[in-house]
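Hi Q.,

Before the meeting this afternoon, I wanted you to have the iron/sulfur cluster prediction in hand. No need to reply - just skim if you have a minute. The sequence and ligand are here:
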Amino acid sequence: MLTRTQLAELLAQEGQPAYRADQILDWIYKKRAQTWEEMSNLPPALRTALAEQYPLRPLTHTLTKGSADTTRKFLLELPDKRYIETVLIPASPALYGETSDRHTLCVSSQVGCAYGCKFCASGLDGFTRNLTAAEIVSQIILAEELSGEKVNNLVFMGMGEPLANFTNLCQALDMITSDWGLNIGARRITVSTSGLVPQIKKLSDLPQQIRLAISLHGPDDETREKIMPVNKKYPVAELFDALRIWNSKKNQKITLEYILIDGINADPHHAAILAKRAASIRAKVNLIPYNTVEGLQWVRPSDEDCLRFKSVLTKAGVSATLRLEKGHDIDAACGQLRLKKEKAEI
Ligand code: SF4
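Predicted structure with the ligand bound:
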């Protein structure tokens, strides 16, 4: 799967007329062709040549967990026998607590992850490789086919740090947002990052009005370093400088993701610092009570403590949601299903 520009260049090299690019894009994104062979208005020799070089369907569906009215998690096999997962979250309530008709897909951007955030299963086996743009986009196409639903909201919160796969992420965003591609509005797309400062600045230069979410989880360096090793490289002050740059270029509120962990980051004084930080960039805060991960030690705070934390934010005028968790029963924390599948096969 290629961007329109890449496809046009490729076809020009093959001596093909320019209109072939639009014919092919129509087959891929509108008619949802499963094979090059189906593209009946292309010359047979071209179909054969393209089929040899560019697999149309790089992902194979292996397993689904969940049901049509709950969060569904699809385990997908890559051509090199690695696994990724993509999670379809049903409409209402949406990720940030609003009721809506959104069909949200949580996509993966890498196999494994190098960033080792302490609450996350994706990094437990380290980083393997970046996903190609085609592998990112194919998750959406496959999820739509498997569910029969149109994905209209997208979050890059699955396995991997999307900003560490920057070039392929940008290509995928081109395929996802363009009218020749999946035509999902940029405002319906959220890229979530552990806080890679240089890439946040670069991403702010993209023309698309995508949304940005930051895995913050600690309002100061001392707290955040216990949870997010990346904070040593990009401390909180530097991160917030980058977020101010984002704010100066984009017309979207930033979301600060904050997992509440008992005894680590969920005391009222953490909430007070977080409130100041969030207010300084007019961000909204998404509070997520810690979801137990097999093999990790942390504990979820009581509901009362979570509500108290939230009220410190709202009293300071910061918009905050306490997320109604979805998918707890099917291991929706990123990476868990894939780890189980791979371990089962060893
Ligand atoms: S939260 Fe994201 S960046 Fe952190 S380890 Fe998990 S996948 Fe990687």
